[in-house]
Amino acid sequence: MSEEQKKEFLEPLEDERGLVVEESRPELKKPPLYQVLLLNDDYTPMEFVVEVLEMIFGMDRPKATRIMLEVHTKGKGRCGVFTYEIAETKVAQVGSYAQQHQHPLLSTLEEV
Ligand code: TYC
Predict the structure, then answer these.
(1) Shortest CA distance to 50 belongs to which of 61, 36, 37?
(2) Buried b (16+ CB within 10 A) or exposed e, 32-41
(3) Of 4, 29, 32, 79, which is most buried by a Cβ count within 10 Å?
(4) What distance, in Å, lies between the first and last C-alpha atoms of the chain?
(5) What is the model's pTM?
(6) Phi, psi at residue 20, to the nearest 5°?
(7) Which run of H or E residues covers position 107?
(8) How far is the CA of 112 from the centre of ligand 1 (A)?
(9) Contacts of 14 (CB under 8 A, 6+ apart)
(10) Burial class (CB within 10 angstroms; exposed 0-12, middle 13-18, buried 19+) of 42
(11) How far is the CA of 10 from the centre of ligand 1 (A)?
């Protein structure tokens, strides 16, 4: 941050009488977003994938079934869009839940 930016950040904008004239600050930059993609494989049971989509991504059964079938037929599919930390957590949760049940199910994250 430049000295000028630091000054602006720390001190309110004043007019020649020393009155604060600024009403609002510019909006902060929005964080980048990441989609979590579920990947197809030949071994994970369809019912298990539906359960994962309900449990980890909060989908209802019809949506979870639709996304599972999309992944099954197209190879991958979007489970949701999140900030980096949340996307990363979802990917870790999918991985560890699948591993606990000895299924090879994988997900990944990609900036949108
Ligand atoms: N292809 C798997 C099967 O036929 C089902 C499946 C769907 C696996 C989606 C992974 O992300 C997946 N049992």
Answers:
(1) 61
(2) eebbbbbebe
(3) 79
(4) 27
(5) 0.79
(6) -75, 120
(7) strand 106-111
(8) 24
(9) 20, 21
(10) exposed
(11) 54
The 3-state DSSP composition of the chain as helix, strand, coil percent (nearest 5) reads 45, 20, 35
Beta-bridge partners for 49: none
Atom nearest to 38 CA in ligand 1? 11
Question: CA–CA separation, 9 vs 3, rounded Å?
Answer: 10
* d(C-alpha 43, C-alpha 22), whole Å: 61
User: Which ranges of 17-83 does DSSP label H, i.e. alpha helix?
Assistant: 46-57, 61-74
- Say if ligand 1 is within 6 A of residue 107 CB: no
Q: Give the ligand 1 atom nearest the CA of 106.
A: 11
